[in-house]
Amino acid sequence: MYIQLNGQILYYEKTGEGQPFLLVHGNGETHSIFDVLTAELSRKYTVYAIDSRGHGLSATPKELHYRDMAEDMAAFIDSLELEKPLYYGFSDGAIVGLLLASAYPDKLDRLMISGANLKPKDIKGRAYRKIKRRYRKDKNEFSRLMIEEPDLTAADLGRIKVPTLVMVGEKDLIKKKVTQQIAAAIPHATLAILHGETHGSYVINSEKLYPLLQDFLHTTS
């Protein structure tokens, strides 16, 4: 399905019935990374698996910016008149979720994120240098986004009101101390450092993610 908002056309897939549940993927990916999760969630929720601007079947702007993506999500919620949706975002989708919940503290019911960073250099050195080399070679907009953004502060995180689950893999490419800082700065946040997991090992079409989200939702209901 397609929706036009903010001068942008976004593609999304809607499945299931119940409380609305938004899923937002990472850099250079599409909603399809959540196919396994969507199948599980749609038994209980109305799932909106969205291709972010510039990704998948959504339209591609000249430049990508996380705050524009967050505004897209706010407009998406308003356009479809979604009442207090749940939100899960991975990597770039997690950054978008933080920005959304910070700018619009009353729009979501719960926020769940994994693999988020506050600054570009929160990415571990080897991975960060690899992204920079890739950008110098191909000038890819996805790479540019990761080496120039985001720029989130503790004050931004402090404006988030909703119960929040902050996850990171033990072997994630995001520095563990950054994830700990994110959880510490958000009121009512729950931190989960997942043993043995990498950045996306428990996320991308993995059966591990659903119980993690459900445990959080049950304990904060």
The biggest sheet amounts to:
8 strands, mixed
The number of distinct β-strands equals: 8
Spatial order of the strands forming the largest sheet: 1-2-4-3-5-6-7-8
CATH topology: Rossmann fold
Count of the domains: 1
Figure out the total of helices.
8
User: Looking at this structure, what is the CATH superfamily?
Assistant: Alpha/Beta hydrolase fold, catalytic domain
**Molecular shape:** globular
CATH architecture: 3-Layer(aba) Sandwich
Whole-number mean pLDDT: 97
| CATH top level class name | Alpha Beta
Uncertain residue segments: none
The succession of helices and strands, N to C, reads: EEEHEHEHEHHHEHEH
Multimeric state = single chain
Helix content: 25-40%
**Content-based structural category:** alpha/beta
Radius of gyration: 16 Å
Percentage of residues in strands = 15-25%
Kindly report how far apart the N and C termini lie: 31 Å
Task: Pick out its properties.
221 residues, alpha/beta, 20% strand, globular, Rossmann fold, 8 strands
Summarize the topology.
Elements: E1 2-5, E2 8-15, E3 20-24, H1 35-41, E4 46-51, H2 66-79, E5 86-90, H3 92-103, E6 110-114, H4 125-138, H5 141-148, H6 154-158, E7 164-169, H7 176-185, E8 189-194, H8 209-219
Parallel strand pairs: 3-4, 3-5, 5-6, 6-7, 7-8
Antiparallel strand pairs: 1-2, 2-4
